[in-house]
TrEMBL record:
Superkingdom classification of source: Bacteria
A Pfam cross-reference name: Methyltransf_23
The name this protein goes by in its record: Methyltransferase type 11 domain-containing protein
Regions crossing the membrane: none
Length: 283
């Protein structure tokens, strides 16, 4: 019997197989989850990011900081500074962006489970990062004006508890920001099992915008903004991974890149971008 790991319903069906992992869909709550979830999640979260990842991330710092600055602008439409917690902060680049690039005053704090990432965090940010995880946030209640979770919630099976823990540390009228892969994206539908953001067993949950919005509303949050997007470079990589099997196909894809990027933008309008981005207020 395959119970949904979120709502415990037994009404689940096979959805897709990615590598050796089955991903199932709950017909009751509509969430997708990786079957056999949680057996290796702690080891994956601790060990996945090696030094080549860290080196590559630092090499892309300027590119990633521009992306974070764009997302920060969406946050600042609704909250103009204050005490901010970035859960799963990695090397601390979003924290650095908020602290140094914003015109508002952000008192930034980070939480990171991966010791290797914490040890290699940017120097002026490292002292602001605590070792720990979302299941037991080491801060007092009603402490933060803003909590950000970029690509975090899909990694743990304790979704209900984690959202309750975030709510505990977030002030009334505080802002929660969530980013996660969108399994209803255009590229997930086209790429099928080759979609790069399935990523089982590292990703235990697989969300859609509608599921996440309904979940947050049920947790007494007001939705302020919700949209989907993905970096164009990531979109094109997925296209190449799915269709560029020989030299001719690679050339064709290169020639039609402008058309592909136009299609990508249209997909965003219909909530079919690869990443969902949601800003909500605690009420």
């Amino acid at each position: 019997m395959n119970k949904c790991i979120y709502c415990s319903s037994i009404s689940t069906v096979f959805f897709i197989k990615v590598n050796s992992w089955n991903i199932r869909k709950c017909l009751n709550c509509s969430v997708l989850y990786t079957e056999g979830e949680g057996k290796k999640d702690k080891k994956i979260n601790l060990d996945t990011y090696d030094y080549s990842y860290i080196k590559g991330y630092k090499h892309r710092k300027n590119e990633l900081q521009k992306r974070f600055l764009s997302l920060l602008n969406h946050i600042e439409k609704n909250k103009n500074g204050g005490r901010l917690l970035d859960i799963g902060c990695g090397l601390g680049l979003f924290m650095e962006t908020a602290m140094k690039k914003s015109s508002y005053n952000w008192d930034v704090h980070g939480l990171e489970i991966n010791k290797r990432l914490l040890d290699n965090a940017f120097n002026d940010i490292k002292k602001r990062i605590k070792s720990g995880n979302i299941e037991n946030i080491p801060f007092g209640s009603n402490y933060f004006d803003c909590v950000t979770c970029f690509d975090v919630l899909e990694h743990s099976k304790s979704l209900k508890h984690n959202l309750d823990e975030i709510s505990r540390v977030l002030k009334k009228d505080g802002i929660l920001v969530i980013q996660s892969p969108n399994y209803k994206s255009l590229m997930a539908m086209i790429s099928k099992e080759k979609w790069s953001w399935w990523s089982p067993p590292d990703h235990i949950f697989h969300f859609s915008s509608s599921f996440m919005i309904n979940l947050l509303k049920a947790k007494w949050y007001e939705v302020l903004e919700a949209f989907t997007y993905e970096p164009p470079k990531e979109f094109l990589l997925d296209v190449k991974r799915r269709f560029a099997r020989n030299l001719v196909q690679k050339i064709v894809i290169r020639l039609i890149q402008p058309l592909l990027l136009t299609i990508e933008r249209i997909a965003w309008f219909f909530n079919r971008g690869g990443l969902l981005f949601i800003v909500v207020k605690k009420i």
